[in-house]
Here is the input.
Amino acid sequence: MITADDYKFHDRDPADDTWTETLFVIFSVPEFAISGNLYVLTRPNIGVCHSSIEIHQGMCMHPWQLHHNDAQMHLRCPDDFSDFTLANGLSFKAHSEREHEWRYESRDGNCSLELSYSAVCDPTDARDPAQVPQAADSKVQGYSGWNNGHLEGKGRVTGTLRLRDKTYKVDCVEGVNKSWGPRNDWGNKGASWIHVDLGADLTAFLVLDLDIEGHQVKYGHLKYGYVLVNGERRPLLKADMTATRTDMLVTSAKVRFEDDRGDVYHALGKTIAAGPWYNFNPSSAGYQCLLRWESCDRVGHSHVADFVGQYYLSKTMSDDLYD
Here is the structure.
């Protein structure tokens, strides 16, 4: 079970230089096709961290098209991961396991934000069989960052974003996660992190394995997830997704998922904002896409984020060597 203490640094072997704890929240302003995220990766045993703030509007097919991309590494690691301010201008405070606040001011004043996160359900512990029936098999293939301690949350993100002298109101339902444990980032494999929002009384979260075959991305087995129906969380037992894409970015998606009662849900998504995120972690790439989801008369907005190791991308997507 996740508690407020899981936002602090966890007990660890102080000699393990690979021990890593991360924190991530995603947000959107759908009416302006804006998608953004805040990310921190810490190595507390060696006293450093890396942080990235990335925001884009509409379809950005190349990194240089992103509207704000502030990634800084070798920052001093905070003493308390539940309440900190970094040298890049990012602040975070966890009031509880369900309530957080974020602040950011870029060094040049070009971007600032104030966001509050309030959970719509208790955060999920991916390793807890009481919450995840398939917990014994919930680890993704070959991507250690997902496979030790892992918290997944869904909540309402509200506040303001100021970017290039324009101010936007943020009010969305999106995801947060935190990870902790030994982590030897070398860019192997990946997974897809998917939120499907279909209005106030129906929203879902799922993690799928991700493979690349014949230069094509294929979504694999459901690792874990849930659907929230009228405030009641039900674990997912089955799910699958297909997508069209351009340059690794999803442009449309079709998802099907089934809960523990046998209820089956379908949704179709069309991308309204997308961007390639190559610097949240030197070993990995993120392909973040904000979709407008439809299911019968239901409509909502939320993200698909494909996270793939750079090593795995080179191995599976590069051209053959020539003589």
Q: What stands out?
A: The first strand starts at residue 19 and ends at 29. The first helix runs from residue 310 to 317. The chain has a mean pLDDT of 95. The radius of gyration is 18 Å.
